[in-house]
Specification:
The chain is α/β, with parallel strands linked by helices. About 25% of the residues lie in helices and about 30% in strands. The chain folds into 2 domains: about 170 residues, Rossmann fold (3-Layer(aba) Sandwich); about 140 residues, no CATH class. The longest helix is centred in the first third of the chain and has 14 residues. The structure holds guanosine-5'-diphosphate (GDP). This is CP-type G domain-containing protein. One of its GO terms (molecular function) is GTP binding. InterPro entries: G_CP_dom (IPR030378), GTP-bd (IPR006073), GTP-bd_ribosome_bgen_YqeH (IPR019988), Mito_lipid_metab_GTPase (IPR050896), NOA1/YqeH-like_C (IPR048422), P-loop_NTPase (IPR027417).
């Protein structure tokens, strides 16, 4: 067996097999005198950070370090996957440190959405989950929307201290930090890495003017995220880069909508009414009769009803049924990681079938 080679940047053991795991490097990099993993290479040469997932254990160690340090915790979540972005117990790890909640991917929201309503909902959900957020901001790291305000808020709330940016994988944390680096630091060669105590993983240290730093912590994989059930090309289809176009369906009782093969919406009771579907424009919606829905799903999953298809069919979980009776006003039925369906009027009974582990919940309509 050959000796393991460690990355001279972060100390991770280099490997050439798994692009997504720590220490990945192209084979040629292993020949170098100062071998670097791809992540450190990109950081050194382009000042660009790349996401790297890590084990739950390492992640907990890192979070403990954050709790023991004094500073502002910037918690990045995906507004389309609020629950899938949630780090359980974060409030405990944050300790006494203030938390700024940043909802990313605001560019995907249709114009009809009232941002204040979304912020209020996020703040209330966070509170339910035990986290007091000092403030909630909405940004598009992709387009740069709200980044200036985020920088100002970070500067105000950190009160001269360090900043720790945390988040699950896929929420856009790397894109967020890269934006901040470009805006705060310009393109200069200022980023360094240092080790998290007790782990092989580095944290990225972006120095601030007053000697303090912004630390990027590696992302944790939340296994309930819809994202982990799909392959990368399918994931692209369900997380679009473009603003969502709401689609209105007039349904009778006993009709079903399939959202690709990922979820199913059954209209059970309440007379003919309109529902507005807010999901990726790329995902096909099929309407059918409720009585045919089970057999349609078993016959056409992976073909007409896709994604999932091909390889991702193998590990795809069964759909679990969630029934809701809509009592008040306009209500959104939120399917974490996918989008939401607005029920225009109260007094309707609905069932949503979503992959096991994926959260389905109600919230007051954002429109
Ligand atoms: P990380 O794993 O949290 O570091 O996430 P990345 O920064 O790698 O982003 C995950 C995915 O979300 C990528 O496909 C990004 O292009 C996309 N993404 C990140 N930020 C935004 C955003 O503001 N809007 C949109 N539409 N997509 C984004």
């Amino acid at each position: 067996m050959t000796e393991p080679i460690a990355c001279t940047g972060c100390g991770a053991i280099l490997q050439t097999e798994d692009e997504k795991a720590p220490g990945f490097a192209p084979a040629a990099a292993l020949e170098s005198e100062m071998p670097l993993c791809r992540r450190c290479f990109r950081l050194r040469n382009y000042n660009e950070i790349q996401p790297v997932p890590l084990t739950d254990d390492d992640f907990l160690k890192i979070l403990n370090t954050v709790g023991d340090s004094k500073g502002l915790v910037v918690y990045v979540v995906d507004i389309f996957d609020f629950n899938g972005s949630w780090i359980p117990g974060l409030h405990r790890f944050a300790g006494k440190n203030p938390v700024l909640l940043v909802g990313n991917k605001v560019d995907l929201l249709p114009k009809s959405v009232k941002e204040q309503k979304l912020k209020n909902w996020m703040k209330a959900e966070a509170k339910k989950l035990g986290l007091h957020a000092e403030d909630v901001l909405l940004v598009s790291s992709f387009k740069g929307t709200g980044i200036g305000q985020a920088i100002e808020e970070i500067d105000r709330l950190r009160e001269g201290g360090d900043v720790f940016v945390v988040g699950c994988t896929n929420v856009g944390k790397s894109t967020f930090i890269n934006r901040i680096i470009k805006q705060v630091a310009g393109e200069g060669d200022i980023i360094t890495t240092s080790h998290f105590p007790g782990t092989t993983l580095d944290m990225i240290d972006i120095p601030l003017d007053d000697g303090k730093s912004i630390f990027d912590t590696p992302g944790i994989i939340n296994h309930h995220q819809m994202a982990h059930y799909l392959d990368p090309s399918e994931l692209k289809a369900i997380t679009p880069k473009k603003e969502i176009k709401p689609k209105v369906f007039q349904l009778n009782e006993g009709q079903t909508l399939f959202l690709g093969g990922l979820s199913r919406f059954d209209y059970l009771q309440g007379g003919r009414t309109a529902f507005t579907v807010h999901i990726s424009n790329a995902l096909e919606i099929h309407r059918t009769k409720l009585e045919n829905a089970d057999s349609l799903y078993s016959r056409h999953l992976g073909e007409m009803l896709a994604p999932p298809s091909g390889k991702s069919l193998e590990g795809f979980p069964r759909l679990v049924r969630h029934e809701f009776s809509i009592k008040e006003g306009k209500t959104d039925i939120v399917i974490s990681g996918l989008g939401w369906i607005t029920v225009q009027q109260p007094g309707k009974v609905i069932a949503v079938h979503a992959p096991e582990g994926v959260e389905v919940m109600l919230r007051p309509s954002l429109i």
